[in-house]
């Protein structure tokens, strides 16, 4: 935080991410309010995230050849326009399932470029490379801070106003990051040479041939395929299990966000990469336990405890793996490594959200959570058996 440029970037992202979380909660509530369909919740989550699986890796190769600062400003502007359009459609009463799915798909395509751009630019605003893991941890703390603060605010706004207001506020929030990027100078980042295809193949070869990178990305995919799908199930828990309203949804989401915020806050002071690799394995274990606790049902307080455990575990897993990957990646490959990270994270999240919605419609929400917990436990056993080799990959 002693670097002026990073402070500007940090502040701009803080407001932008808060707005994004407010919109996300409002959107899933809108879907379930007008349709009552658990399956459509899964479809909406899927189309919003699957572009990062399909487009993300190629977007990373393209990003590594571009002026990242200029393109981030452009993508943020388009995201603001998408949110403003969503607000207008909602306010006019023209919104329906087909338009929601279409707007979610557009959001997913834009995020396929936005997320790698934002992460890859962090290194431009950090003076000392040794500070990069700390900067990445602070950035993850912002994401999860927004998850902690945004949903309760969204629940309050939904109770007092409408979904359209939440979407409009998100549209305004993108201006904060645009202004921050315009004011920050930053150091120039190395660009990759050659065609997009060649640059993509170079990044894919690095990811596949490096054992530690391959294992971490696989673990990342499993965590987000299972534990992260809680977001799709929250409206069902709030409305059908606990017979609540939008404020109940905000409370449940806020519990997960609180756990995530605490989790990423603990990472801000971690400097040992080998120790961090052990922390990731522990976080996977906490996710599995949190799914089991949330699936018990009965009390809102018990569900909040389970969701806090899931939020903590998912945040530490995602942020910890991101820190390990970016800290060990060559500068010229960082954009592509980030894009593969994002593809695994959000692509698995998309598939997991779709499967969670379909399973919840078939088995019920509690049994869905337990099935996901069992799958994650198998992943935990795999990682635990390889913990020493993973630690050695990042230092003595």
UniProtKB/TrEMBL annotation:
Q: Where is it chiefly localized?
A: membrane
Q: Where are the transmembrane segments?
A: 12-32, 38-63, 84-110, 153-182, 215-238, 250-269, 276-293, 299-325, 337-362, 368-384
What does the UniProt keyword field contain? Cell membrane, Membrane, Transmembrane, Transmembrane helix, Transport
- Compartment(s) of residence: Cell membrane
Gene Ontology molecular function, alphabetical: transmembrane transporter activity
Q: What's its membrane topology?
A: Multi-pass membrane protein
Q: Name one GO cellular component term.
A: plasma membrane
Q: Which Pfam families does the record cross-reference, listed alphabetically?
A: MFS_3
Residues in domain Major facilitator superfamily (MFS) profile?
Answer: 212-396
Q: Which PANTHER family does this chain map to? A: INTEGRAL MEMBRANE EFFLUX PROTEIN-RELATED, STAPHYLOFERRIN A TRANSPORTER
Q: What is this protein called?
A: MFS transporter
Its ancestry begins with: Bacteria, Pseudomonadati, Pseudomonadota, Betaproteobacteria, Rhodocyclales
């Amino acid at each position: 935080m002693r670097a002026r440029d990073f402070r500007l970037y940090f502040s701009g992202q803080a407001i932008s991410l808060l707005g994004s979380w407010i919109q996300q909660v409002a959107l899933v509530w809108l879907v379930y309010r007008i349709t009552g369909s658990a399956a459509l919740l899964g479809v909406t989550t899927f189309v919003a995230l699957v572009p990062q699986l399909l487009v993300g890796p190629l977007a990373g190769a393209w990003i590594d050849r571009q002026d990242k600062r200029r393109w981030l400003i452009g993508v943020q502007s388009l995201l603001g326009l998408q949110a403003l359009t969503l607000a207008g459609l909602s306010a006019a009463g023209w919104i329906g399932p087909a338009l929601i799915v279409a707007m979610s798909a557009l959001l997913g395509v834009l995020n396929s470029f936005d997320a790698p751009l934002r992460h890859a630019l962090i290194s431009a605003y950090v003076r000392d490379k040794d500070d990069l893991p700390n900067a990445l941890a602070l950035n993850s703390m912002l994401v999860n801070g927004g998850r902690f603060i945004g949903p309760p605010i969204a629940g309050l706004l939904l109770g007092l106003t409408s979904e359209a207001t939440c979407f409009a506020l998100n549209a305004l929030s993108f201006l904060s990051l645009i202004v921050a990027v315009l004011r920050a100078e930053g150091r120039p980042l190395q660009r990759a040479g050659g065609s997009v295809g060649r640059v993509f193949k170079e990044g894919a070869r690095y990811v596949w041939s490096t054992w530690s990178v391959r294992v971490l990305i696989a673990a990342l995919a499993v965590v987000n395929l299972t534990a992260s799908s809680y977001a799709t199930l929250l409206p069902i828990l709030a409305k059908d299990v606990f017979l609540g309203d939008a404020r109940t949804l905000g409370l449940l989401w806020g519990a997960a966000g609180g756990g995530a915020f605490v989790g990423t806050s603990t990472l801000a002071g971690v400097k040992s990469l080998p120790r961090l690799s052990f922390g990731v394995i522990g976080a996977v274990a906490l996710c599995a336990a949190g799914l089991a606790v949330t699936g018990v049902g009965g009390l809102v307080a018990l569900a909040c405890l389970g969701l806090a455990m899931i939020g903590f575990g998912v945040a530490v897993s995602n942020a910890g793996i991101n820190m390990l990957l970016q800290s060990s990646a060559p500068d010229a490959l960082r954009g592509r490594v980030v894009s593969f990270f994002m593809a695994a994270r959000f692509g698995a999240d998309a598939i997991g959200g779709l499967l969670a919605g379909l399973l919840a419609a078939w088995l019920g929400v509690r049994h869905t959570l337990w099935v996901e917990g069992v799958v994650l436990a198998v992943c935990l056993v795999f990682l635990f058996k390889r913990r020493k080799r993973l630690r050695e990959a990042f230092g003595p």
